[in-house]
Amino acid sequence: MGDRMAKHDPAARRDAIVQAAADLIVEVGPGKLTHRLVAKRAKVPLGSTTAYFASLDELRQEALGLLVREIDDALTQIRQVFECDPAAAPDHLIDMLHDYLSERRNVVADVALSATATFDDQARELALSWADGLVVVLREYLGADNAHAVAMITEGAGVHAAIRGEALSRDHLRRALSPFIPASFTPVDGVSK
């Protein structure tokens, strides 16, 4: 979204502020969010952040809500892969996880958020939403234990990518996950959608 649009479109300006706050939450944590940081990132006057949000807490909640919706969208995409093409789901899952882990911003943000989550309840809830959501999606096809293992390995692979500056190769990721992922997915008996 261009700066010009945000200046002349109140909804676009508000969206830019929320997006900037969300980006900052994953970079510095929700506890370090300030109106000044958000305004600078959104490229809007400082007063805009208070004009659209009654308090910093309200802005923080909107930004956290945006991040949760982004996580939910990603999990929905994973679920759709399983539902549409169960035979190809294992390969698609590896590809989707590899693509995510290959984006430096994703892994650095996840590691920063995880570190903040150790001390901040709001960050903890957000940090857990991806792993917990992934378990919910995968347990239908893998069972609960294997779904938890995949989530934990994925989290570790994110830390690995953040520290090393590059993701594991698809082959390494596939080998790490293969003990927990069958050659094809079929719903596990007794687990409802």
Tell me about this structure.
With 193 residues, the protein is mainly alpha-helical. The chain has two domains: 1-65, Tetracycline Repressor, domain 2; 85-193, Tetracycline Repressor, domain 2. It contains ten helices and no strands. It starts with a helix and ends in a 16-residue tail after the last helix. The mean pLDDT is 86.
* Cα distance spanning the termini: 37 Å
What is the global morphology? elongated
CATH architecture of the largest domain: Orthogonal Bundle
What's the pLDDT, averaged over the residues?
86
From the alpha carbons, calculate the radius of gyration and give it in angstroms. Answer: 19 Å
Taking the sheet with the most strands, its summary is: none
- CATH H-level homologous superfamily name of the largest domain: Tetracycline Repressor, domain 2
How many strand segments?
0
Helix fraction by DSSP (H/I, runs of at least 4): over 70%
Number of continuous helical runs: 10
What is the CATH class designation of the largest domain? Mainly Alpha
Q: Per DSSP, what share of the residues sits in E-state strands of 2 or more residues? A: under 5%
What's the order of the H and E elements? HHHHHHHHHH
What structural category do the secondary elements indicate? mainly alpha
Low-confidence stretches: none
DNA-binding region: 34-53
Protein name: TetR family transcriptional regulator
Domain HTH tetR-type: 11-71
InterPro entries: Homeodomain-like_sf, HTH_TetR
